[in-house]
Amino acid sequence: MTEQRTGHESEHETERGTSTGTPGDAAVYGSPDFDWSILAVPTPLAVVRGQLGFSWLELAGRLATLTQAELEWEPGPGALRVVRRGEERSPRTLGPGEWVMEWPAGPDSAQPRTIAWLVAHLTELFTERWEWTFGAHELRRDGVTFSGEVGHAVAGLAGVVERWRADVDALPEDQVFTVGLSQATEIDAQSPFAHLVAHLNRELIHHGAEIMVLQDLYRAAHVTAGAGNP
Questions:
Q1: DSSP H helical segments within the chain, as ranges?
Q2: 75 sits in which H/E element
Q3: pTM for this prediction
Q4: What angle do CA 142, 68, 54 make, to 5 degrees?
Q5: pLDDT of 49-88, one tens digit each?
Q6: What is the 3-state secondary structure (H, E, C) of 121-171?
């Protein structure tokens, strides 16, 4: 989820050239899907845009390989899930439709989370923040529709993250520190907008890393025995 490379290239970051010392012949590396030129733009908005864009590129690559079994896998007892209404085992849920998120028992709940829950959480988080920054200021997180089917769940998250990215990218530089540009929460309404962008970046990086680790753990635990895998 970061640009630092330790021991091996990231999934989207492969070496495509080396510097010869000749002017104009700098090293070229990284995914062509990311606009690396943003790293040379000396503005606060460019910093958070670059972080958001690269972090989403990394997570989106993993989500593209996500399976239904990985989405639903429960890493421990009492794991929080996304289930059809009526199948929940938590007294609190979120979601108005056929599928609901099981909500934690409390703010310090030690319940593990499934990938489905993490995808749904990021979906409602980005949806509410976009709605109350760039949208009609109507939809709240309890009105966000979820899905427990991998294709719909991933598409829902991708759609709202890309919508958020597009509107952040289009924001004029002189508005990045506008206080109250977002009205999603009391804190947002009192803060320069750059703080909210950085906060959502942290959420994407934090929960994206959880998704990647859970996917790795599932694959390690369910690897097919065979040659080289006793």
A1: 44-63, 68-72, 115-131, 150-169, 186-189, 193-221
A2: none
A3: 0.84
A4: 70
A5: 999 999 999 999 999 999 999 999 999 999 999 999 999 9
A6: HHHHHHHHHHHCCCCCCCCCHHHCCCCCCHHHHHHHHHHHHHHHHHHHHCC
